[in-house]
Structure formats: structure tokens, C-alpha cells
Write a structure and sequence with these properties.
The complex is a heterodimer of chains A (about 475) and B (about 575). Chain A is of the alpha/beta class and about 475 residues long. Chain A has three domains: about 70 residues, Thrombin, subunit H; about 280 residues, 3-Layer(aba) Sandwich (Rossmann fold); about 100 residues, Bovine Mitochondrial F1-ATPase, ATP Synthase Beta Chain, Chain D, domain3. Chain B has four domains: about 70 residues, Elongation Factor Tu (Ef-tu), domain 3 (Beta Barrel); about 70 residues, OB fold (Dihydrolipoamide Acetyltransferase, E2P), CATH 2.40.50.100; about 240 residues, Rossmann fold, CATH 3.40.50.300; about 130 residues, Bovine Mitochondrial F1-atpase, Atp Synthase Beta Chain, Chain D, domain 3 (Bovine Mitochondrial F1-ATPase, ATP Synthase Beta Chain, Chain D, domain3, Orthogonal Bundle). In chain B, the strands form five sheets. In chain B, strands 8, 18, 19, 20, 21, 22, 23, 24, 25 and 26 form a ten-stranded mixed sheet that branches. A six-stranded antiparallel barrel of chain B has the order 1-2-5-4-3-6. In chain B, strands 12-11-9-14 form a four-stranded antiparallel sheet, with no helix packed on it. Classes of the chains: A alpha/beta (about 475), B alpha+beta (about 575). Chains A and B meet through strand 5, strand 11, helix 7, helix 8 and helix 11 of A and strand 1, helix 2, helix 5, helix 7 and helix 10 of B. Strand 5 of chain A pairs antiparallel with strand 1 of chain B, so a sheet runs across the interface.
């Protein structure tokens, strides 16, 4: 391994060095500063005689006399089952005071793409205990379902609630292994938020089945581009080699994208929308597409990335590109939040693309899909009418319209509202759904199968509402 | 990717000079533009995209991690080509026509490794070849010389390659052959095998284009009923995420009455492709009862697969489509999504440090798009007869904003526009195609077909539906201000009729066994039933019946069940009769 003292330029997170032998693209580099500190980086561009290196920990302390060592390999994550219960920094080094990690294997952190032919289509229902998700935006094993949130909204509480409660119902009966291993990848979150997560993990004992990667707000920004890859490499190992069902929570993708932009700017690349690099779609896809199931393997990787939409704008490049890659989105709503709804999930713009195959007879319940559709349609109608009521007042509306308005209110208060500690079974969720739908006249339920209506529709409820 | 004739064409090899993501430069490489090269010790596949002095720029179709300067670059001297021949159908390829099942086997892993190559069609397998020519016959390029039963539903026709001279047949074989064995010999000395190669960036030759007059029936009411596409036509489906682009594309791939379907998943989700792979073999063609997969060729380049292969997968797809067109088939190609393709061009272009055009896209974006869509059409074939390619491209505009360059440049070319609408999707109105914004310029030229094959009055009844929906749009604006009750009764009734049009006719449940496919006759009968309700209701209103009573007739909500009714003729007959009696009883 050759050592160079040939740095020619240092600019932002980048270091340029002259070399006299070929260096591979993406190779790992160690830079030793005159102060004796060792920094790590990665080759971003390699041409004859010159390489540009992106330094994870930031370039401060590097001068032109620093020595550069090329390790001759791309970045690897040491993986072992013993990682469960450990807390690591954003570069994968233990920070919990525990013993050194003795790896079983070292795996490349840039995961290769899963052959679509080898994938297994995800269709196992995950019960999160949250009605807004289970009932109307069902999560399945192997899905990537992000939470689109905004600054100051309780996305962390929702993520924690899911991490705590997520189970796969059939396995409950068997009484084994229904819980998920949780991989938590933090990118640029504050110490306080990190503490909140850690406290909850410790309180519920979830830490034992978790691996935590922490890149905090004051850690180097460039490191954030590595943290999720380390987390996902660990997740893939646990899932596809060790048979765990893994739930990966990545927060906050917005910080990750900021780091990409920073590197892009330092490299003087032609920027795409709002200054983010043109390859951001591909880059994000390389993270999100690592969720899934593989034919013939036991485990699964389910992803819940969290991102905060800058000024709640869903058309901002970060949520926009994410939405095109992920299989749906859960949207946290500011007005529901200020109204005190817990969790403040707005189901109308939320979506789970894999829902249709994960629900129904034998999976959840035969009427699940129809009930969900009907709740959507009725709530959307009620929402529309709210605008109208502001103009003309309730008296000017028909009796039918008034029912839809009441429905929308009760839907928020009873179906969505449940608190962060309540764990509802899918049965409970659907029964609440039927309670609410029974407020509406029977013939309005045009999305539901007639047999299901006969079985579940509550005549008394309809009369009670009618009598009001 | 074709591997067969590589050895004899090898030209001067070069040496890697620099590596930056998918873009590699090499020195001393003797290559032409668009030649395929093998990069580095591992032999990663790439394509020459720029030549400047002694420096050649290559886009690499595989991950380049660990590749460094000094490694060799080997030139094949051939442009990026696809293998054509029996074995294309019922297969799933990556963006450079490597069969994914084969790759899994060769790599022994569920992950896509690098530097593994596989021919696009099985060179080992033998096929039953039945000649359609005899010794002494004259054949010209494009002529059929024999047939091979490729899958249950498709007979593969073996053609004289367009690059051949043609001549008199001097020898003909019949029986079991592999694709590389000679089956027909010509007096010109040319030997015909079942295997052809064709460079993907070059359109296969055909004679003049014709005006298409037959619709590509999709079994989707809003498409067949309001915005039809012709066989040989082009359509774009733009929409924000979650508005149902992919479901619509899948529905078309499943139910469109094309002979061959080429489905290109360009930069989309891995699980979606898996869904297609798992679903299609189980689905039956509604006309032939044969598995849908036996007429389908899938090309999957998911979003995390190398970006350069995403750029090429569209070309791979359309070239395969052209090959089947040349056999006289009606081919439908779905590209999901052309935006990812455009973005791949942008990514490569920015790595080449080209001067960007609008929003960072290369200045040649419009040219590339129109070149692609122009490969669609109904053609007179060089071997005689007709064949068509219909192209349906999904577009994923950032933020759902249709004013962005890819949508705009696409709309300038295509003749059918299906605008997906996030608002409709939010209220779970599927397919969420906006009936105000969408259009089809094929309506007039397809009307004669509809009159002849569905119903003589079809265009008039359709116009009634469009007018009613338009009127609803206008009335809704007033309702937003004053409420529904403030409208006169006849307008309230129009709203009620329009509601049935939307909920019972335009909405269609892709996941319902019966409703997922709706034949044109049923589409028409359903519309007619709503019109029956309309006519009866207005007659009753004129006779002084209060609107509440008309709305409350028992039979009316049954309109919503027409789509899912299995025995639809009986169901609709009975419903129309009931509507008539019940409404007439009111006065």
C-alpha cells in the first residue's frame, strides 16, 4: 500500500491528490493529518495521475503535507449478528462503550441491485396498530413507505409507534419471532431527537433487537452519504443471510440530500432542480430499492424513511423524487396536528401501493379493500363540503351533505385519532370504520360489496344519526 | 446483447484514462461512435458516446466501483445491437437485452453482479422450423421464408433480413434447428438463420406509414369510450406520483388487443416489475384464453440499476417491437417511464459537461423524444403486408407540473393525451384520468370502426356523455358558491346524471375480476343505460315530478353495479326496464 504526500488542492469536503499508479473508482482512502488524526474518504473521480477524494469527516485539519493512503478496496461494512443491541456512529464505529465488533463478513456498502427476477412480491400484511396506516395505507413486509412530514410535526412519534407495535398477525398465533429487528439510521438529527429515540428504545427494550447508526447534526455532513448505506448493508445481511424481518427507519432523508448537494457543489457539477445534483433520483433509488424480499430467503427488509418537506412543499425535489421511487407515502398534516389529532396523518394524499395485494380474505379481512375505498371517498366528499359550509352555512346544505360533513368530523376524531400508545388490531380498525360508515345511508355505500354491507352495516346507527 | 460475431471484428484496444461514475474515458482506442466496448479487467459493457482526439468517452452499463486508470478497454467494433429470433417472448431482459433469469443462474445470486454477459436469445435451444418457400422461389428482404411456433399464441415468422440482397432460394431445410443453423440458402450466396442482429439506435426499414383507423381496444372504459388510441398510434400518460400511471400501463399491457406487447420498465420500482413477472403468467388473454405472458416481452431496468442501461432500454424495446411489426403483427409498446429515460440522458450529458438546455436536460431532448415516438405507426412492410407499433409512454413530471420539458416535448408529438390527476386519485377515483384535460386526436378516424363494430349511434351517445360532463364542470363552479339546493331542478338532475357517469361509467376497478376488463360493447351499453336514466328522468321532471322522488327510485343506484356485473347483458336489460317502469310510475 503506497503512501502519498501529494495533495494539490483542498476544497470544501474534497481533496485532490496526485498519484503515480492507478486508483480504483469508489476506493477507500485514509488521510493522516499532521496532528496524527486519521480521516477516511472515498475516491469520487480517478484519472491518470490525479484523484479527487471526498472526505467523510470533513477536510478541517488537512494540509498539503498530510499523507494519503489508498486501501485498494471499496468501502465495506463489517457485519455480524452481534451488531444487534449496538450503537454505532455514522461511519459504523461503536460509540456505546461496548466491545470491538468481530465481523463474520465484510460487505460492500454499495449494495448491488437485486435482480427483479429474483425478487418475491411483497404481500404479507404488517399490523402497525395505527388505524390510518393499517386500515387505509397498509404496510407490507418488504415495502418502502416513507413518512412525509414537516418541521415541528410529530413524525418521530409515528415512527417510534410503528417500530414498537409492528407485528405480522399470523405469527402471533405461532408465538414466535413476530417482532422486527429495527435498524435505525440517523442522518443529521439533533442530539435531542436522538435522545428521544434512544430513550424510547431503552424503555421498551427494543434496543436489544436494534442496531443504531448515529450521524448527528454536528457530525460531518459528508458522512451522511455513508450512514444509510451502512444501515442498509447491515439490514440486508440480517434479513437475507440471517433470516430476520428487518424494519429500517432512516431519518432525515432531507439532510442526506443536502449532503449530496454539498458534494455536488464542491465538485462544480451542473446542478439540477433547486441545486440538487441531476443524479439524485438514481442515488435515492440506490437506497430505497434495497427494501424487499428475495425468493427463497427467509427475511425481509422493510423501509420507513422519514423526510421533512421544506416549507411543507410536496413538489420540492426531495419528496418528489422519493415519491416516484417509494411504494407510497404517509403524509403528516399540519392542520390535523394543530387540531390535536394523534397521529396527525392525512389519509387523502397518503398512499400505499402494495396495499391491494396485502389485504383481503385470508390476509386481513374480505371487506378491507372496499371499506378503505369507501372511507376514502366519503371523507373526500366531506372535506370538499367543508369549504362550501364556510360560504353558505350548514343550513343551506341538503340532509345528505350534512351526513357527509358529520362523517368527516367523526372520521378524524374516532378513526384517525388514537394516541401514540394505543395499539389497535386490524379487526378494531375495520369495526370503527363500519361504525362510521353506518352513519351514511346504505345506498351511498357504492364501493362496497352488497354481501359485506348486509353483514356489517349497522342499521341502528343509521337510524340514530337520522333521528338527530 | 449480441455476442456471436465479436471475435472477427475486434479493433485496436485502449487504456482507461479516468473513471467518474458511469462515464469512463480511454486513450488509444480505435473506435467509432456508438461502438460497444468492454471496460476494465472485469469486462464491463459500455458504449462509445464521444470521441475527442485520442480520447474516447464511454458510458458504462454496469457499476464502475473499483475500476481504475490503466485497465484495458476492448472494442467489439459493433454498435449496441439486440439479438432477434425465436425466444424473445415470455422473457424478461435488462436494459441491454441480457435475460434476467439467465443472469441469476450465471451469477448464482439474487443480486446483479458485474461483467456477466448472456445472449439475448437462447443459442442452444432448437425450434421446429417449417419453411413457407420452396427451392426456386424468389425472395426479397423482409419476405417470410418460414414459421416457428414460438409460444402458445404466437407464430414466429422467419424473415429475410433487411440487410440482405435476396434472390432465388437454392436450398431449404425443415425440422428442428437452433437459431444459428442455416435454414434457407439463396442464389446470392446469402444464408438465412433464425437469428438476426440489429443495432438498437437505428430504426428497422419499412415502407410508408398509413393513417391508422382501427382502435387499440384496451378494455378500459375511459380510454375506449372517450380517448381512444389507434393501433399504430402514440399516447402519453403524464401524472404525479400516486396518480396511477403504472396501474394504467399494466392494465394496457394486460388487456390491450395487440398481438405482441413489449413492456419497458425504465427506471421504475423493482417490486413493480416483480409483480408483472408473477402476475402475467397467471393471466389469460380475454380473446384467446392463452397466458398473457406468451405474447409479452419484458424489459426491466429498475431505478437502482445502472443509469446508462436505462438510457438504452427504450431503444432495446422499440427495436424488438419493430422486429415483430415486420412479421405483420400489431405491437403495443409501453414505456414506464420516459421521464426516467430523459433523466438518464441528462445525467450522462451532465457528466460529459455538455451545455445544458432547459432544466438541465440536454439540448437534444426534443429530438431524441420525437425520434423515439416516430418509430411508432402503422406501416406498409418491405416484405408486403401491414404491421403496427402503438407506443404508450408514461411521463413523470416533477411535482406533477405538466409545464416541464419532458411533458411538453412529448405532447408536441403524441396524439393521445391521458392526463392523470392527483385530486381524482386522492378521492380514489380510478383510473384517475382527467376527462377535461385529456384528448385523443384519433376520435374522428376511429369513428367508422366504432359505428361498424359497436353501434351506429356510438359517436353521438359519446358526445352526449362528454357534454353532460362538461356541463357538470360548469355547474360545479356555481355549486361551490351557492350550494346544490340553490340550482334549478333540471340542473340538479344534470348533476345527478353526471355523478353516475363519473362513478358508474368512468370509474373502473382494476382489481375486480370482472370490472378489470370491459369490452367496447359493454362500455357502450353502460353509457346507454345512464342515458336511459337521463331521458326518463328528464321526462318525469317535465311532467312535474319533484326531483327528490326521481333521485330516490330504487333502480338508480344499481347503475353503480353495472361494471362489476358478470352477466352484464341481462343485468343492464333488466336495469333499463326497471328504470323505465319505476320512473314512469311517478307520473
Amino acid at each position: 500500500m503506497k503512501e502519498y504526500q501529494t495533495i494539490t488542492e483542498i476544497s470544501g469536503p474534497l481533496v485532490f491528490a496526485e498519484v503515480d499508479e492507478p486508483v480504483g473508482y469508489d476506493e477507500i482512502v485514509e488521510i493522516e493529518t499532521p496532528a496524527g488524526e486519521t480521516l477516511r474518504g472515498q475516491v469520487l473521480e480517478s484519472s491518470e495521475g490525479l484523484v479527487s477524494i471526498q472526505v467523510f469527516e470533513g477536510t478541517s485539519g488537512i494540509d498539503r503535507n498530510a499523507s494519503v493512503r489508498f486501501l485498494g478496496e471499496t468501502m465495506k461494512m463489517p457485519v455480524t449478528e452481534d451488531l444487534l443491541g449496538r450503537v454505532l456512529d455514522g461511519s459504523g464505529r461503536p460509540i456505546d462503550g461496548g466491545p470491538e465488533i468481530v465481523p463474520d463478513e465484510r460487505q460492500d456498502i454499495v449494495g448491488a441491485a437485486i435482480n427483479p427476477y429474483s425478487r418475491e412480491y411483497p404481500e404479507e400484511f404488517i399490523q402497525t396498530g395505527v388505524s390510518a396506516i393499517d386500515g387505509m395505507n397498509t404496510l407490507v413486509r418488504g415495502q418502502k413507505l416513507p413518512i412525509f412530514s414537516g418541521s415541528g410535526l410529530p413524525h418521530n412519534e409515528i415512527a417510534l409507534q410503528i417500530a414498537r407495535q409492528a407485528t405480522v398477525p399470523e405469527e402471533d398465533e405461532g408465538g414466535e419471532g413476530s417482532e422486527f429487528a429495527v435498524i435505525f439510521g440517523a442522518m443529521g438529527i439533533t442530539q435531542e431527537e436522538a435522545n428521544e429515540f434512544m430513550a424510547d428504545f431503552e424503555r421498551t427494550g427494543a434496543l436489544e433487537r436494534s442496531v443504531v447508526f448515529m450521524n448527528l447534526a454536528d457530525d460531518p455532513a459528508v458522512e451522511r452519504t455513508v450512514t444509510p448505506r451502512l444501515a442498509l448493508t447491515t439490514a440486508e445481511y440480517l434479513a437475507f443471510e440471517k433470516g430476520y424481518h428487518v424494519l429500517v427507519i432512516l431519518t432525515d432523508i432531507t439532510n442526506y440530500c443536502e449532503a449530496l448537494r454539498e458534494i455536488g457543489a464542491a465538485r462544480e457539477e451542473v446542478p439540477g432542480r433547486r441545486g440538487y445534483p441531476g443524479y439524485m433520483y438514481t442515488d435515492l433509488a440506490q437506497l430505497y430499492e434495497r427494501a424487499g424480499r428475495i425468493e427463497g430467503r427467509e427475511g425481509s427488509v422493510t423501509q420507513i424513511p422519514i423526510l421533512t418537506m421544506p416549507s411543507d412543499d410536496i413538489t420540492h425535489p426531495i419528496p418528489d423524487l422519493t415519491g416516484y421511487i417509494t411504494e407510497g407515502q404517509i403524509i403528516v398534516d399540519r392542520s390535523l396536528n394543530s387540531q390535536g389529532t394523534e397521529p396527525p396523518i392525512n389519509v387523502l394524499p397518503s398512499l400505499s401501493r402494495l396495499m391491494d395485494d396485502g389485504i383481503g380474505e385470508g390476509l386481513t379481512r374480505g371487506d378491507h379493500g372496499d371499506v378503505s375505498d369507501q372511507l376514502y371517498a366519503a371523507y373526500a366528499e366531506g372535506e370538499d363540503l367543508r369549504d362550501l359550509v364556510n360560504i353558505v352555512g350548514r343550513e343551506a346544505l341538503t340532509e345528505r351533505d350534512n351526513k357527509f360533513l358529520d362523517f368527516a368530523d367523526r372520521f378524524e376524531d374516532e378513526f384517525i385519532q388514537q394516541g401514540y400508545e394505543t395499539n389497535r388490531s386490524i379487526e378494531d380498525t375495520l369495526e370503527i370504520g363500519w361504525d362510521l360508515l353506518s352513519m351514511l345511508p346504505r345506498e351511498e355505500l357504492n364501493r362496497i360489496d352488497e354481501e359485506a354491507i348486509a353483514e356489517h352495516y349497522r342499521e341502528e346507527a343509521a337510524e340514530a344519526v337520522g333521528a338527530d | 446483447m449480441s455476442t456471436t460475431e465479436r471475435t472477427e471484428a475486434v479493433r485496436e484496444d485502449g487504456v482507461i484514462q479516468s473513471v467518474s461514475g458511469p462515464v469512463v474515458t480511454a486513450t488509444d482506442l480505435d473506435a467509432r461512435m456508438n461502438d460497444v466496448v468492454y471496460v476494465g479487467e472485469e469486462g464491463l459493457m459500455g458504449e462509445v458516446i464521444e470521441i475527442e482526439g485520442n480520447l474516447t468517452t464511454i458510458q458504462v452499463y454496469e457499476e464502475t466501483s473499483g475500476v481504475g486508470p490503466g485497465e484495458p478497454v476492448e472494442n467489439t467494433g459493433e454498435p449496441l445491437s439486440v439479438d432477434l429470433g425465436p425466444g424473445l417472448l415470455d422473457t424478461i431482459y435488462d436494459g441491454v437485452q441480457r435475460p434476467l433469469d439467465e443472469l441469476e443462474e450465471k451469477m448464482g445470486s439474487a443480486y446483479l453482479d458485474r461483467g456477466v454477459d448472456a445472449p439475448g436469445i437462447d443459442l442452444e435451444r432448437s425450434w421446429e422450423f417449417t419453411p413457407t418457400v420452396e427451392v426456386g422461389d424468389e425472395v426479397a428482404p423482409g419476405d417470410v421464408v418460414g414459421e416457428v411456433p414460438e409460444t402458445e399464441s404466437i407464430t414466429h415468422k422467419v424473415l429475410v433480413p433487411p440487410t440482405f440482397e435476396g434472390g432465388e432460394v437454392t436450398a431449404v431445410e425443415a425440422g428442428e434447428f437452433t437459431v444459428e443453423e442455416v435454414v434457407v440458402e439463396l442464389s446470392s450466396g446469402e444464408e438465412i438463420t433464425m437469428h438476426q442482429e440489429w443495432p438498437v439506435r437505428k430504426a428497422r426499414p419499412a415502407n410508408e406509414k398509413e393513417t391508422p383507423t382501427i382502435p387499440l381496444v384496451s378494455g378500459q372504459r375511459i380510454l375506449d369510450g372517450l380517448f381512444p388510441i389507434a393501433k399504430g398510434g402514440t399516447a402519453a400518460i403524464p401524472g404525479p406520483f400516486g396518480s396511477g400511471k403504472t396501474v394504467t400501463q399494466h392494465q394496457l399491457a394486460k388487456w390491450a388487443d395487440a398481438d405482441i406487447v413489449v413492456y419497458v420498465g425504465c427506471g421504475e420500482r423493482g417490486n413493480e416489475m416483480t409483480e408483472v413477472i408473477e402476475d402475467f403468467p397467471e393471466l389469460e388473454d380475454p380473446k384467446t384464453g392463452k397466458p398473457l405472458m406468451s405474447r409479452t416481452c419484458l424489459i426491466a431496468n429498475t431505478s437502482n440499476m445502472p443509469v446508462a442501461a436505462r438510457e438504452s432500454c427504450i431503444y432495446t424495446g422499440i427495436t424488438i417491437a419493430e422486429y415483430f411489426r415486420d412479421m405483420g403483427y400489431d405491437v403495443a409498446l409501453m414505456a414506464d417511464s420516459t421521464s426516467r429515460w430523459a433523466e438518464a440522458m441528462r445525467e450522462i450529458s451532465s457528466r460529459l459537461e455538455e451545455m445544458p438546455g432547459e432544466e438541465g436536460y440536454p439540448a437534444y431532448l426534443a429530438a431524441a423524444l420525437s425520434e423515439f415516438y416516430e418509430r411508432a405507426g402503422k406501416f406498409n412492410l418491405i416484405g408486403g403486408g401491414e404491421g403496427s407499433i402503438s407506443v404508450i409512454g408514461a411521463v413523470s413530471p416533477p411535482g406533477g407540473d405538466f409545464s416541464e420539458p419532458v411533458t411538453q416535448n412529448t405532447l408536441r408529438i403524441v396524439k393521445t393525451f391521458w392526463a392523470l390527476d392527483a385530486d381524482l386519485a386522492e378521492r380514489r377515483h380510478f383510473p384517475s384520468i382527467n376527462w377535461d384535460e385529456s384528448y385523443s386526436l384519433y376520435r374522428q378516424q376511429l369513428d367508422p370502426w366504432y359505428r361498424e363494430n359497436v353501434a351506429e349511434e356510438y359517436p353521438e351517445i359519446r358526445q352526449w356523455g362528454i357534454d353532460t360532463l362538461d356541463e357538470e364542470g360548469e355547474l360545479q363552479e356555481i355549486v361551490q358558491l351557492v350550494g346544490k339546493d340553490a340550482l334549478p331542478e333540471d340542473q340538479q338532475l344534470t348533476l345527478e346524471v353526471a355523478r353516475y357517469l363519473r362513478e358508474a361509467w368512468l370509474q373502473q376497478n382494476a382489481f375486480h375480476d370482472v370490472d378489470t376488463y370491459c369490452e367496447p360493447e359493454k362500455t357502450y351499453r353502460m353509457l346507454l343505460a345512464i342515458k336511459t336514466f337521463n331521458d326518463e328522468a328528464f321526462a318525469a321532471l317535465d311532467a312535474g315530478v319533484p326531483i327528490e322522488e326521481i333521485q330516490d327510485v330504487d333502480a338508480a343506484p344499481r347503475l353503480n353495479r353495472m361494471g362489476t356485473a358478470e352477466e352484464w347483458t341481462e343485468f343492464i336489460d333488466e336495469l333499463e326496464a326497471d328504470l323505465e317502469t319505476q320512473i314512469r310510475e311517478l307520473y
